[in-house]
Write a structure and sequence with these properties.
CATH architecture of one domain: Roll
Structural class: alpha+beta
Order of helices and strands: HHHHHEEEEH
Strand content: 15-25%
Shape: elongated
Largest sheet: 4 strands, antiparallel
Helix content: 55-70%
CATH class of one domain: Alpha Beta
Distance between the termini: 148 Å
Amino acid sequence: MKQDLGAWVKKRANTVFLSICASLLALSVTSLVMALSPGDQASSAEQAAGIKAGLVEDKEGAEGELATRHSELLAELGGIDADRIKRDRRVIRTFVLSLAEAPASSRSVRDEQISLDARWDVLGPDSRTLTEFTPEWMATGEGRHYRLTDLDIQVAGISGLDYSYAALARLEPDEDGAQFVFVTATTKQDGALTEAVAYRASNASRAGLEAADGSRATKDESAEPTIEPSAGDGED
């Protein structure tokens, strides 16, 4: 009987070994699953919740710091500075007047460019005001004395401490033939120009601007004050 049992076990040793291994593996997996659930699952959920709460807290803290800094910057800027705008407009007006004088100058184009370059730090060798506007402007109004009859300067934008402006100047000579000059300019907090570019209006643009000015003038002249009848002016 013992020999028969030993022969059976020997004959089926591989099968028995694999069965035992499978049983041990199943037992280990079962033990691991039991170890992970439900206690470890609950612990993992608690850890995830803690991490999420920490991230939310960090996010809220960063947003709070950003809002505080934004408020501080707004307080430093103090909104739009009306006095600064008045000062900047005076600087731009002076710049326009210096350009208006160029056609009447006895200097050559080159000498006029040198004069403007020395007067205005914002201009330089690559400045379109010097390289393009000045030669064209002097050729167009050669020998004419232009006077500034209208200048509209509007704030075009504010970026940090820099203010940008767009201006339209109407320049009239002694005889008929007004010229219009567009100017874009940017100033620093101290009032210095960091950009100043002048463009002469084309013939088509000039005709449209003159028509608009004429229409506005006609409208202003035709407008009459309305006199309201007093209580005693009615008919009996």
